[in-house]
Design goal:
The chain is of the alpha/beta class and 504 residues long. It folds into 2 domains: 316 residues, Hexokinase, domain 1; 140 residues, Nucleotidyltransferase, domain 5. Helices cover 41% and strands 16% of the residues. The protein contains 17 helices and 13 strands. The strands form 3 sheets. A 6-stranded mixed β-sheet has the order 1-11-10-9-12-13, with helices on both faces. A 5-stranded mixed β-sheet has the order 4-3-2-5-8. Strands 6-7 form a two-stranded antiparallel sheet. A hairpin with a 5-residue loop joins strand 6 and strand 7. Helix 11 runs antiparallel to helix 14. The longest helix is centred in the last third of the chain and has 37 residues. It is globular and about 75 Å long. This is Phosphotransferase.
Length: 504
């Protein structure tokens, strides 16, 4: 079966489709029958008690990885959360795969306007191929030149501005502000000749060459930045969730919850101060033997370049929602007379159905689905100028709802599992931590960012609905675990990190 799964999406025989479903050669199976099949596979596992059982299984995985894994449940060097009273001007850097953003952020305290956070100035720079081709120190010199464009060079004896960086690439962090540079991937050549060197020194040397009055105080990943930015506004924040093209989460846990080996060779001064720690969960990697899987999930996994590596992400993130719908549509065309059996040429290409396109189907409330029809026809025109029927369009919308609905339920389940883990650890009598006396722990805020949470129609509200059901099964009230969007969290979170380290 696996051998047939990894072939291109073509019928392997006259009688069976790529998923092993009997076609009966005459396509006598109706779209209604296929839709019923999809509903059973995507909705049946979503009963609240079933989701709660999944949450408990995920918690068991989390506990195991807190003790043993070197690729997930990774402790950062950040061991305090903001008080919300930090003030000042800070330079925030957000280095992504295609964009470098620089912001001058003003913090005034959470009791002031705009939650105490204001972007005074921000500029984005495209990281195109010529920039990705820059080798070694040249890349960091390019960064320093862009920083100068935003904040200017030093004037007189001005005090240096505290700066922090959200870095979307691997590093082996050695302190809150330093780390050994590792291969960046995504076509970047910046590590050539400097791999293993301290990213702090590389960036600061480039800034000193331009006489920039800045001091790098912290390096964080996007999930930690999201948690910090919301924690500045709301002290009940102990979790974050990134859900866009990919997914991840950060969680604030007692230091003693992780195996000592996880901390490497940190100085004793760190251990003397740290009672709790921000942990990068790498949440996408969990759930291989827990999450429900349809035949389309199995196909996606079997044909993936890294099968089984990120099972949760494969079911919920923006990169894969459209792909799962595409696989169902392929089966519908081959076995259930979707589009009268006509295959749009581009639809046969893996990952050609963008999640933004299926989002249009869910946002189009018209009876004719005219907007969705135009969006689909633009990306996937049918042969010979044909157009999808009304039944075809409503089939696509219903499949999209089923795929995104399951994703919302699984995201909620994973968040509930992290909340339950955190709650059990901070209330355990065997754990010495600084969170027990915090009355805000009765309510938990999950700081969120990412295009799926922010823009996919109805996704966040569905996710919140499942969280409410899971909270009540756990003996909590509806709304005890609340999802809150943390917009611009990469820059705000970096600024908060810089502020926290400046006051430490």
């Amino acid at each position: 079966m696996l051998a047939s799964l990894i072939q291109p999406l073509q019928l392997p025989s006259p009688s069976k489709d790529v998923f092993g479903i009997e076609t009966q050669s005459s396509r006598t199976r109706s779209m209604d029958k296929l839709l019923h099949d999809v509903e059973g596979l995507f909705e049946a596992p979503l009963r609240p008690r079933s989701l709660h059982a999944m949450s408990e299984q995920l918690q068991a995985e989390f506990r195991t990885k807190l003790q043993s894994s070197n690729i997930c449940m990774l402790p950062s060097f950040h061991h305090t959360l903001p008080t919300g009273s930090e003030c000042g001007d800070f330079v925030a850097l957000d280095v992504g795969g295609s964009t470098f953003r620089i912001a001058l952020v003003h913090l005034t305290g959470k009791n002031s306007t705009r939650d105490g956070m204001e972007i005074k100035r921000m500029k984005s720079f495209v990281i195109d191929k010529p920039i990705r081709d820059l080798k070694g120190k040249s890349f960091f010199e390019w960064m320093a030149a862009r920083i100068e464009e935003v904040i200017g060079s030093a004037q007189g004896d001005a005090a240096p501005l505290s700066m922090a960086m959200s870095w979307s690439f691997p590093i082996e962090q050695t302190s809150t502000r330093s780390g050994s540079l590792l291969t960046m991937g995504k076509g970047f050549c910046a590590t050539h000749g400097v791999e293993g060197q301290d990213i702090y020194e590389l960036l600061m040397d480039a800034c000193r060459q331009r006489n920039l009055q800045v001091q790098l105080q912290a390096i964080i990943n996007d999930s930690s930045a999201t948690l910090l930015s919301q924690a500045y506004r709301d002290p009940s924040t102990r979790l974050s969730l990134i859900l866009g093209t990919g997914m991840n989460s950060a969680i604030y846990l007692p230091v003693s919850a992780l195996a000592q080996e996880k901390y490497g060779s940190r100085p004793e001064s760190w251990h003397a101060c740290a009672k709790d720690v921000l942990v990068n969960t790498e949440l996408s990697m969990f759930g291989k033997d827990v999450l429900p899987a349809s035949r389309w999930d199995h196909y996606l996994n079997a044909t993936h370049a890294m099968p089984d590596f990120q099972p949760l992400e494969h079911r919920v993130s923006g990169r894969y929602l459209g792909e799962l719908v595409r696989l169902v549509l392929i089966e519908g065309i081959e076995t259930a007379d979707l589009f009268n059996g006509m295959m749009p040429a581009k639809l046969q290409e893996p990952y050609s159905l963008d999640t933004g396109t299926i989002a249009v189907f869910e946002s189009d409330s018209s009876s004719t689905l005219s907007v969705a029809a135009c969006a689909f026809a633009s990306a996937h025109p049918l042969p010979a100028g044909r157009t999808p029927s009304s039944k075809d369009l409503h089939f696509i919308r219903q499949v999209s709802r089923l795929v995104s609905g399951r994703a919302a339920a699984l995201v909620a389940t994973a968040v509930h599992a992290l909340w339950s883990l955190q709650h059990s650890l901070v209330t355990s009598p065997s754990v010495n931590n600084s969170q027990l006396a915090d009355p805000t722990q009765l309510r938990a805020t999950v700081a969120c960012n990412g295009t799926v949470m922010e823009k996919y129609p109805g996704f966040r509200s569905r996710c919140q609905g499942y969280l409410d059901e899971l909270a009540m099964i756990s003996g909590q009230s509806r709304g005890a675990i609340s999802i809150e969007m943390a917009l611009e969290s990469s820059v705000f979170g970096a600024a908060v990190a810089a502020a926290s380290e400046s006051e430490a």
